[in-house]
């Protein structure tokens, strides 16, 4: 697999540190509010990356953090008269609610910054001991940017140009305008922890370095996030991590492109700022996932209601193909047409994988999947052999699952009671007790469910 490495500015072959295993860290949300559609893109993209790596046989350790202490959280918690911890707990639950609806799998580990204070303090102490950081008389600790010769290598920033544009808050006791906070001294109304420099709390950048290295090691395979995080967040992560360990931090850096709304930058002032919860009130969030994957992840994407509606229609075509494959009538035996179809299936699977191997090109992968849908729709218009149908169903399920599509619209969404009634109805029909079968159908109708009898047995559908 070739991926574009932001650090080297070229596509490189993905070669893991440990054969057969991938260690991957993706920046997660700051849990002070519902996450917006701009956040949704990296969550979906890097979930898809993880799914594909697992599909290709890698064992993936996927870490996505929660920033549960920062200025925005403190401000909102104070406004609501609750603790920062209470606020974080609430919006972590809300994150899972919306991420689940987008088909985003749970990370292997979801570390919280407040659960890694010990590791953060240890990392800051190491940086001070190595001369890369310094404490002020007030109890703040800053990273000395000029002590790290490689600063700017990820973003391509020139340190002298950065100095010309730097601003210093009058309250900050920095030695250099470019230096950034590793530890912030306690202020009234803020959560704080004991440290060698006095009570305080961590800076944002140090949190991700401490969490990622404590779980994945001092060097790991992939660090991912939105393009907006390249500078200063990821640049600062690299500086403090490599200054502390003397080793490379992440070997590959992946960043998704920006998202606009109706061809304008998303902004509260333009009234085009939407949370995923806002969008869920109007659209199927699986269609939002489809929309996000319809553009290669490094390219900018334009969000609009019209485009989401188009994604809903496209998603319905994939669902219809899945249903037709599931319900296809069986022929007594296979034919030469079956063999030709299976050849096409394997070719389309290879096209799909070639696209995904080319820097996670989900747009082209979707193109192969839609051709698969069209081809299979034609194929199942007449009865077909069991072997061909079974193989087509398996491959279709594999490929849609890699993209996180059509995987959470399953029979599991129906109540256990309804599934039990469906089994009872099928048994009644086999026993030629049609009166009982009709009675069960009416009970299911009363639950808002319809029974559809197909060549492969009955299935439930929600009544429209």
Explain what the structure shows.
- The chain is an alpha/beta fold and 464 residues long.
- It folds into three domains: 2-256, HUPs (Rossmann fold, 3-Layer(aba) Sandwich); 276-402, Anticodon-binding domain of a subclass of class I aminoacyl-tRNA synthetases (Four Helix Bundle (Hemerythrin (Met), subunit A), Up-down Bundle); 411-462, no CATH class.
- The protein contains 15 helices and 15 strands.
- It has helices at 37-55, 71-80, 84-101, 117-129, 159-165, 204-216, 230-245, 276-280, 285-293, 305-327, 336-357, 362-379, 386-402, 416-430, 434-446; strands at 2-5, 10-13, 21-26, 59-64, 133-135, 141-143, 180-185, 200-202, 220-226, 250-256, 259-261, 264-265, 301-303, 449-454, 457-462.
- The strands form five sheets. A four-stranded parallel sheet has the order 4-3-9-10, sandwiched between helices.
- Helix 6 (204-216) packs across helix 7 (230-245), helix 11 runs antiparallel to helix 12 (362-379) and helix 11 (336-357) runs parallel beside helix 13.
- The longest helix is centred in the C-terminal third of the chain and has 23 residues, at 305-327.
- It is elongated.
- The two termini are 43 Å apart.
